[in-house]
C-alpha cells in the first residue's frame, strides 16, 4: 500500500522489535523528529491529540461536533490527513476553527515530518488543543509517533466488536477509545459486552467512552476529557509522552 513503510493488505507492523528490521531506520528518523515536535508543542503548552480510525467510522462528524461543543471552552485547531480529497477539511472549517489539510497521496499514514510542515501554517500561539485527524487506517499509523500527547482510537458500532482484536498495536497504544455511532447499536445488533471485553483485553489502560455525534450521547464526557487534559498540559502537570514501538 505504501512504499514508506512497506505495508500491504496482509502485513501488520509488529511492535515487539522483531520482524521489522527493514523499517527501523525510517522509524528511528521519524521518532527523532517526533521528539522535536513534542518539545515544540510542550513549549507552547499545547495538548496534541492524534485521532485514528478505519475509514467511515465517523471521525470527521465527531470532530465537527467536538469543535462546536468546545467553542467557548478551549481554542482548537485541526490538521487533517487524507489520501486525496479535501472534503473533511472543508467540513471542519465550517465549524470556524483553523484547519490545515495534508494530502498524503499514496501514503497511508501521517509522519512527524508532515506534521512539522503543517504546523507552520497553524496559529499555534492562539490554540490550546491541536487535533490531528490521521488517515483512515488502523495498521501503519500506529507505528508513527507524531509528537502527540494523547492517542484516541475510534471503534464504530457498525464495524463489529472484534475490531480491537484485529488491530492490537493501534488499540494498545490508545489513551482513549471512543465507541462511536452508539445510536445505531441496536439497529446493527452491536454486542456491547463483547466490544468492551475486546477493548479491555487489548486497550486495558484506555478510557472508554461510548458516544454518538448524532444524538449527543456521551459527547459531554468526551469534551470534558479534552478540557481536563488541556488544563493539565497548561499547568505543566502532564507531559506529551512518546509512544514507543520497540
UniProtKB/TrEMBL annotation:
GO BP, sorted A to Z: protein maturation
Pfam families given in the database record: cobW (PF02492)
Keywords, ordered alphabetically: GTP-binding, Hydrolase, Metal-binding, Nickel, Nucleotide-binding, Zinc
Start-end of Basic and acidic residues biased regions: 10-21
InterPro entries linked: CobW/HypB/UreG_nucleotide-bd, Hyd_mat_HypB, P-loop_NTPase
Domain CobW/HypB/UreG nucleotide-binding as annotated: residue spans: 48-209
Span list, region Disordered: 1-22
CDD domains: HypB
Molecular function per GO: GTP binding; GTPase activity; nickel cation binding; zinc ion binding
Family statement drawn from the similarity comment of this UniProt entry: Belongs to the SIMIBI class G3E GTPase family. HypB/HupM subfamily.
Protein name (database record): Hydrogenase accessory protein HypB
Organism of provenance: Akkermansia muciniphila
Lineage: Bacteria, Pseudomonadati, Verrucomicrobiota, Verrucomicrobiia, Verrucomicrobiales
Gene encoding the protein: hypB
